[in-house]
Amino acid sequence: MSHKILSKKQLCSNVFMADIEAPLVAAAAKPGQFVILCLSTAYSERIPLTIAVSDPEKGTIRLIWQAVGKTTAELAELKVGDKVENILGPLGRPSHIEKFGTIVCVGGGIGNAPLLPIATAMKKAGNKIISILGARTKELLILENDFAAVSDEKIVVTDDGSYGKKALVTEPLDEVCQRTPKPDLAVAIGPAIMMKFCCEVTRRYNVPTVVSLNTIMIDGTGMCGGCRVEVAGQTKFVCVDGPEFNGHQVNFDLMMKRIQAYKKQEQQAFEEYKRHKCKIGLDS
Amino acid sequence: MNEQQSKKLLDELLKKYRDGTLKPSDRLNIPPQPMPVQDPTKRRKNVNEVALGYTEIQACLEALRCLQCKNAPCVQGCPVIIKIKDFIAEIVEGNYKKALDIIRENSLLPAVCGRVCPQEVQCQLPCTVGKKFKNVCLSVSIGRLERFVADWGEKLHDASVPEVAAETGKKVAVIGSGPGGIVAATNIRKTGHDVTIFEAFHKPGGVMVYGIPEFRLPKAIVQEEIDQLKKMGANIVCNFIVGRTRTIKQLMEEDGFKAVYIGVGAGLPIFLGIEGEHLVGVYSANEYLTRANLMRAYDFGKGADTPIARPKTVAVIGGGNVAMDAARTAVRLGAEKVYLVYRRSEKEMPARVEEVQNAKDEGIEFHLLQNPKRIIGTSDGLVKAIECLKYELGEPDSSGRRRPIPIEGSEFTIDVDAVVVAIGNGANPLIGQTTPGLALNKWGYIVVDENCKTSLDGVYAGGDIVLGAATVILAMGQGRTAAAAINEYLKNKK
Predict the structure, then answer these.
(1) Of A1, A70, B6, B197, which is the most exposed, with the fewest CB atoms less than 10 Å away?
(2) Is the pLDDT of residue A89 over 90?
(3) Mean pLDDT, range A60-81, rounded to an integer
(4) pLDDT of amino acid B406
(5) Which range, of A167-176, A212-221, A263-272, B289-298, averages the lowest pLDDT?
(6) pLDDT number for residue B411
(7) How far is A196 from chain B (nearest CA, A)?
(8) What is the pLDDT of residue B61?
């Protein structure tokens, strides 16, 4: 069964959003879960993408992605009505949703996309939500209004100060942790380095912290072990044991090295793709 | 022996055979026919099949080596009880079609089994000819004959679609499209039931597609079997993971499936649990082979999008077929040095003898009675070397093989850029976690009775998820048993 793209939107320079037909996935998906997408069966790679929203009634899932490599760029080239050959899911353990009290949700860059369904579900479960949204620059900040709708308080920071406060997300996070009462839980999703430093802040204040890891995967079902990370000294598979973990127990340094494993080849494939696309005149 | 000499010998033998003067001693004097193979230096650079298959002359000579024992001990050694001496007799007669039909009575995938079965521990182990020479390697090459017949059939596209009985309208779900699933689905479909195979990957075939490399089992052969199933009217749904997309409970209670066969394999890679296993360049064999086979990473930059490391020196840990596959894949991906590190001796290796030989011929260096103690990395987190310990063999353990014992203080290092861990798989917990009431043993494998029935009504299981890591033929055997039980169960089910 292939999956038709029903709507598509460019959120900022290289971040895209699409609603895609996937009735079985939509019916089963819960916040925190992801899909593995493979554009065409013969030669495409398999990539994990978090389900931003699932609509069981319409039978659609919303994916948000950043065009940073060949497959994500190819996906961005698809138009409404085009089809994705393979979508497998929902995968991973769903987020643990319950009433904790006050939850600080920290999103960095594209991390806002997987964070939104968790923040939404947590709000629904009766939690007070403080959102901290960070981006390199104003143009790259995504889903601000969606977060506004589910947050009791929203703090925006940018690296260059073009919007909100000029700061990294760790600065307001530190400030929120100092409040009385301190937050009952932190959820941090974004680049590995951001999650690492968020965890260093929350550890100081003893605020339990959930992170969602986006590692290299092939099957997404526990078969390859390529996604393995070290959590509390133990080997865990992000695809079946995660993607969410206790951030205070994750060995981020190791993980950051592992996600770089194919940097060179990925770059090569992306460059090749862009060159090819120019040649056949698709780059309009 | 060149072809002309072989032909001459065969003519002489056939004459005697027809005269009724062919004596067992004549049969025993026929030289065992070697498998023609692709030249080792050439094949190091391609992914084409290594073993090329017998010629007709070779097949007939090899078939004449069979003594046609009355008690046919070979048949007892076959997990699916193929009438071996009968099909071999038909080869001598030149009745290849009849030979194929005899095999097909018991085995659905002869082209696969002829290639990947460990014959030396199955049918060829009790072979009288091998016993006579006190060497199992000199037994009649039953597997190669099976392959000869199957390939002959495929060349003619004589894939006659098995007959399907009148539709019963009863829905059966088969989870996993590996060898067990294919056999179960075929046998259930034959009875007229409405069969749907659910596969998590985007291509069907299971381990035969993601695991076993092209150079040992061409994908076209697997595809032929899948096409055959489709022609019979079975449905194959890819990108569907039972336990997440739908649970077994939902399939049975909401989606109308009356019975389920679980053949999901044991795809949860076991790691060594040693320091350095998270370094970049350390792979599970599953990951390494999946990248190379299923995702065709050997064509990266030439169409395929999935990358794979192409290191100069690789250590593969393990001594089974998967380890051989990984080591030989590394060679084809351009590694200059490939070491196979195994903690027991060659005698204890679970790999097929033929693959061990092929690996050696391709220049893979065997490091026996050694095992890594830790993996050493660079400051960037890349693999640099493995530190190994030397081992000696002690008393036999519960597996019947002599237990490897590390020799204290025997540490030494081997410089490598990549490590592939091929020491086996555990049970994937997903089905167990999402199927209340399904009994599992302490290792997480599904508990079944002699009919492959689980603790749940209408739910059957077989293959690696029941047996632990086993073989294609054992999975097929269980698929067959379960299918018979499911057909029986559905007889009385409205």
Answers:
(1) A1
(2) yes
(3) 93
(4) 95
(5) A263-272
(6) 96
(7) 18
(8) 97
What residue in B sits closest to A240 (Cα-Cα)? B430
Facing residue for A218 by CB, picked from B245, B290, B300 = B290
CB neighbour class for A208 (10 Å; exposed up to 12, middle 13-18, buried from 19)? middle
- Scanning the structure block, which residue is given the tokens 């050997």? B298
A27: pLDDT strictly greater than 70 = yes
- Give the pLDDT band (50/70/90) at residue A284: very low
CA A8, CA A17: separation in Å to the nearest integer? Answer: 6
Mean pLDDT of A144-173: 96
Classify burial at B217, counting beta carbons within 10 Å of its beta carbon; exposed 0-12, middle 13-18, buried 19 or more.
buried
Candidate from A46, A221, A230 with C-beta closest to B278 = A230
Residue B196 to residue B183: CA distance in whole angstroms:
13
> Which strands sit side by side in the sheet containing A47-55, from one edge to the other?
A83-84, A3-12, A15-21, A60-66, A47-55, A34-38, A86-91
Select from A75, A86, A221, A268 the residue whose CB has the most chain B CBs within 10 Å, as the one to mutate to test that interface: A221
Phi-psi region of A112 (alpha: psi -120 to 50; beta: other; left: phi over 0): alpha
DSSP per residue, chain A = --EEEEEEEEEETTEEEEEEE-HHHHHH--TT-EEEEES-TTT---EEEEEEEEETTTTEEEEEEE--SHHHHHHHH--TT-EESEEEEEESPPP-----SEEEEEEEGGGHHHHHHHHHHHHHTT-EEEEEEEESSGGG---HHHHHHH-SEEEEEETTSSSSEES-THHHHHHHHTSSSPPSEEEEESSHHHHHHHHHHHHHTT--EEEE-----SSSSSSS-TTEEEETTEEEEHHHH-SEEEGGGB-HHHHHHHHTTTHHHHHHHHHHHHHHHHHTT---
At B394 the three-state DSSP class reads: strand
Whether B119 contacts B142, CB under 8 Å: yes
What ipTM, to 2 d.p.?
0.91
- Specify the pTM: 0.93
What do you get for the CA distance between the two ends of chain B, in Å?
A: 63
Low-confidence ranges of chain B (pLDDT < 50): none
Which tokens belong to B100?
């194929």
Predicted local confidence at residue A279, as pLDDT: 61
Q: B202 and A38: CB-CB below 8 Å? A: yes
